[in-house]
Design a protein that fits this description.
The chain has about 170 residues and is an alpha+beta fold. The chain contains 5 helices and 3 strands, in the order H-H-H-H-H-E-E-E. Helix 3 runs parallel beside helix 5 (about 95-105).
């Protein structure tokens, strides 16, 4: 009986801590952490342009009424970014580069060619849809807007371009 009571108290304590974490009293990740995670897992070992483009897509989603209104809400959304994006370990070797790019995007830098794009996929992937309007390929990803098919003027990924953003 005592064991059951202790076990029940532990379950309640864990549930309470989880609830507090979820409501932001004990945040697990800051907005910068979430932006770094998006850049790291979606464009790690690519280019600064690739990281800034990924960050620009995240911010386009934050500013859209179709997605959560926080960086962490967007990045943690199920099936939208790399599996395990919020829980996998990041290698510290590229931390300074990723951090600089994340801070820069959070301060307002955007990739100038992203426009309103809210989506991307690996540049080598060939999507079978007719509503994809590509705006940029950089850092190993192809970035695009979804449009009505009659408004698509760039239906194939563009050649990779680098060196647009600078630091």
């Amino acid at each position: 009986m005592i064991r059951q009571k202790v076990r029940f108290q532990m379950i309640i304590s864990v549930a309470a801590l989880a609830a507090l974490t979820g409501c932001g009293i004990f945040p697990r990740h800051t907005e910068r952490d979430c932006m770094e995670r998006a850049m790291y897992f979606e464009s790690n070992r690519s280019s600064r342009d690739g990281m800034i483009a990924v960050g620009s897509v995240v911010m386009n989603r934050v500013n859209s009424s179709s997605y959560p209104d926080t960086v962490c809400g967007v990045v943690a959304q199920k099936n939208q970014f790399a599996p395990g994006i919020m829980s996998r370990k990041m290698d510290g070797r590229s931390a300074a580069i990723v951090r600089e790019a994340a801070v820069s995007v959070l301060k307002g830098e955007r990739h100038p060619m992203i426009a309103r794009a809210q989506f991307f996929h690996a540049a080598t992937y060939h999507a079978p849809y007719n509503n994809i309007h590509y705006v940029l390929s950089t850092g190993g990803n192809a970035f695009y807007e979804k449009r009505p098919s009659e408004r698509v003027t760039q239906s194939t990924p563009l050649p990779q371009i680098e060196g647009i953003t600078g630091r």
